[in-house]
Amino acid sequence: MGPDVSWKYYSVTLVIIFLNFINGIFHNKPCKHVHPKIHEVIHGVHIEPAHILKKRSIDQPLRILLYYDDSVYKLEEDKFELINNTVLPEAVSFWEKALMVRSTENVIRLNRKCENNQVFYRKGDWYSYCKNSCETRTLCGEVQVPEEHLDACRTCNASGMNCTNHDNAGTGIIGADFVFYVSAMETERCSKGQTVAYAAHCQQESALDRPIAGHANFCPNSISTKPQELAILLSTVKHEILHALGFSISLFAFYRDSEGNPLTPREDNGKPLQNTKLQTRQWSDRVIKTIIRKDWVVHNGTIEREVQVMVTPKVVKEVRNHFNCPELEGAELEDQGGEGTVLTHWEKRVFENEAMTGTHTQNPVYSSLTLALMEDTGWYTANYSMAQPLSWGKGLGCDFVMKSCKHWIDNKRSNQNTLPGLARKCNKIVKTDVKSYKLKMF
């Protein structure tokens, strides 16, 4: 590649950085995924023993059951038809084609919520027991789980004795691997920002910790039926579904290796340690590592920048291949945006229009990197034919992904006598005083 061609290539890349930066300031819509706190997730749903599930191949196409709360049927007719006939079917179909799980041969019956979240686990018993009594209602997000989906109420007295099965189990969930409880309520979260929908998991099975139930809420006042906004709405719903299926700070500590063994050590109760600050379970450095980037160039010098990097094996292989950087430790996670964005998305500076970054942009893509992460949960295998190409940063090497944007731009400029055209604007951008982007972007 001659010098003129090379410079044209980098000039185009610099222009893209500039345009995406401007777009990010004025047009991007942030994802405000609020991960479920420890007390909001019910664990220990018994389906089958771990030693049986581990032996099964992960080759069952994911089956998602949708259960509508009454609020969905109260939507305006055009909004209901959009959600029911287009958005949910297409979003669910995408992930059912993209992901496979270990087959579940038994009926799924979800656990009942225990009074004050007080639970007993008896040695040698597959089931959990509530202290004294079960709650009269079990919620998943805003939706009350129907009685027919619930297992029997099992209780012990305050000393963990006199344990009883109250024999009020429902018929259960048949022919599904995950159930989504869907609502359409104008909640407090809907009033924050430009929230259209949000989702999270609410119950996990006991053998391998896979999430098996979750909720999704649509904010009625934010649903647009304009044809030109359908693509972003559909991508948003796909994005939120994936948070419930595995891409969430509340699930990282439960990831497993290819043999079904935990990547994070467990306490005597079978769960990882608690992180009281984040109100979730703490993952090990086999999942996420803290990396210090030294000599990180900013507009007025250099700093040390701490980044959190997903280091699970398929993610590492995929991200190294994408950037053509064999020394890259893993895929960087978002470090800004507050709760709901930090750690639960790919880093925007590095992955730009990957759909699992923290802001929804034009032309979002679900790339092979995101599918690799879902495989690294230990719960799924991925159909990579469903991956969409991610062009941002592809093949640009270690400096692009491991150094600041300013360093990368300055380095390309130093190899040329001039900085032509719109590329000069990129040079101005790296000197900007837009404080919320200064360190992050450059």
From TrEMBL:
**Which InterPro entries does this one have?**
Peptidase_M8
Q: What GO biological process, any one, is recorded here? A: proteolysis
- Names of required cofactors: Zn(2+)
Q: What class of enzyme is it?
A: hydrolase
Q: Which residues bind Zn(2+)?
A: H239, H243, H345
Query: What Gene3D superfamilies does the entry give?
Result: 3.10.170.20, Leishmanolysin , domain 2
The cofactor remark states: Binds 1 zinc ion per subunit.
Does this entry carry the keyword Disulfide bond?
Answer: no
Q: Cite the EC number.
A: 3.4.24.-
Q: Does the keyword Metal-binding apply?
A: yes
CC annotations in GO: cytoplasm; membrane
Q: Which key words are in the record? A: Hydrolase, Membrane, Metal-binding, Metalloprotease, Protease, Transmembrane, Transmembrane helix, Zinc
Q: Where, by residue number, is the active site?
A: E240
Membrane-spanning ranges? 7-26
- Native organism: Rhodnius prolixus
**Which protein family is it in?**
Belongs to the peptidase M8 family.
Any one Gene Ontology MF annotation carried by this entry is:
metalloendopeptidase activity
Protein's UniProt name: Leishmanolysin-like peptidase
